[in-house]
Amino acid sequence: MSYQKDIGDNELKEGLKDFLETAPEIYLSGVSVDTVIFGFHNDKLKVLLLRFANTPYFVLPGGYIGKDEDLDVAALRVLQERTGLKNIYLEQFYTSGTRKRSEEKIVKETLQKIAGSIPHSNWFEQRFVSVCYYALVDDTQVNPQPVPFFTEFKWVEIRRVPKLLFDHNSIINKALTRLRSDLNEKPVGFNLMGDTFTMAQLQKLYEAVYQKEFVRTNFQRKILSLNVLERLEKKYNGKAHKAPYLYRFIKSS
User: Fold this and answer.
1) Predicted model pTM
2) Cβ 25 vs Cβ 68: under 8 Å
3) For 4-14, what is each residue's pLDDT tens digit?
4) What is the CATH number assigned to the segment(s) 2-183?
5) In the chain, what are the domain boundaries?
6) What architecture is domain 188-249?
7) HEC readout, 183-231
8) Are 4 and 101 in contact (CB under 8 A)?
9) Are strands 229-234 and 197-198 parallel, antiparallel or unpaired?
């Protein structure tokens, strides 16, 4: 699933010029937000990526923190702008602050190509510490909003994520590790499943997240022991003796 928009060099140049002029007055310096947005569809775990300008390179959805804005509020705003969704499950999981993480030759060369020349030590060349969040959304409901410098929004299966700019591959791996841990400790899976589901459907989610298959009986025993599911009526399909039970997550108050 991909969302593309045509942006000419002049539009990119004007967007870059406007951002460089206004960013220092609007946003905190040296700190940013990066988000790993997970979606689950057709039994596959996917992550939302953005194409940088008119290059073949992708990055995670991210943004900056307003000078008068709380950190979590900024992260939620960035997610709403990138997805068009409002009720989003959001979890802070990591802070990326290695010294050279903001250095990316491709980005510098692309910006120079777009603008012809840009001021030395401009906004993009400073060192950024990034606070990282992961989000769980229904990817079929995502309606990406236009963002300067990005020409495509693309859902990519977690197994097929390409080499990304900056340290974004590492951030995705850390988000996946955290998601696996959270799935076993609290009912975060309801953000990726429908209101009700069968045990087989839930097993597909766990297999997509863990990237391995589970034995059905062992999986069911493990999940039921977590006490995060409520069993409902059977899902009738014309064969009553084979009808599976429906379940839903018990949402904490």
Assistant:
1) 0.89
2) no
3) 666 667 777 78
4) 3.90.79.10
5) 2-183, 188-249
6) Orthogonal Bundle (1.10)
7) HCCCCHHHHCCCCCEEHHHHHHHHHHHHCCCCCHHHHHHHHHHCCCEEE
8) no
9) unpaired
